[in-house]
Amino acid sequence: MSSVVERREFIPVAKVPAEMPRGIAIQYYVRWPGEPKEITSNSLSRLKKNLRDGIWENVFLTNDTSFEQNFMQLESGGGLYALQFVQDNTGGIGEEAAWFSVYDPEHLESEEETDIESADGQAVIYRGDVTTDKEAVMTAIEYFIRTGKLWDGIPWMKSWQEWAEERSGE
Q1: CA nearest to 135, candidates 60, 55, 66, 79
Q2: What is the distance of C-alpha 80 from the center of its chain?
Q3: CA-CA distance, 41 to 35, in Å (whole number)?
Q4: What is the pTM of this model?
Q5: Fewer Cβ in 10 A, N or C end of the chain?
Q6: Residue pair 37/29 in contact by the 8 Å Cβ criterion
């Protein structure tokens, strides 16, 4: 018999984080439950300002407006930031369907819930899945918009599910 188990791997901060490039690789941002809006130089400046100033507490960034592949989402509030990158949102199993999130090592195993109101109004965001490092989060968001990749200047927790065989009689 087999069951699905969750795996985790911690990706540390690079000794010398990648510099911020120019350009825009991610085409759309969505403020839930709104419609996708194109990311341009002007909208990127406005997006960064609204996030930094706390005017916007959530945003989704994607090239795939069906949200099945490679999107980043931010949920925030009260000085806490839940930043997550979803590699494959189709319900797949294995590392190719991984999700990456910031984390707080001091609260990682805690079941403590935050007061962050999720964009969908249903998801619970736990204290272990957030950071208080606003500057790193803002840089990671801009880096993702400019490259479509995760910034290596912030620690990430990579999670995925895989099938595990259960052994009977042991």
Answers
A1: 79
A2: 13
A3: 19
A4: 0.90
A5: C
A6: yes
Q: What pLDDT band is residue 153 in, cutting at 50, 70 and 90?
A: very high
Cα separation, 73 vs 31, whole angstroms:
10
Mean pLDDT of the chain: 91
List 71's β-bridge partners, or say none. 62, 86
Q: What single-letter amino acid sits at 1?
A: M
Q: How confident is the model at residue 154 (pLDDT cuts 50, 70, 90)?
A: very high
Name the one residue in this structure whose structure tokens are 């957030």.
130
C-alpha to C-alpha distance for 24 and 39, rounded to whole angstroms: 8
- DSSP category for residue 84: E
Q: How many other β-carbons are positioned within 10 Å of the β-carbon of residue 29?
A: 23
* CA–CA distance, 138 with 8 (Å, rounded to integer): 24
Asked if 154 and 10 count as a contact pair (C-beta separation under 8 A), the reply is: no
Q: List CB contacts of 15: < 8 A, sequence separation 6 or more.
A: none
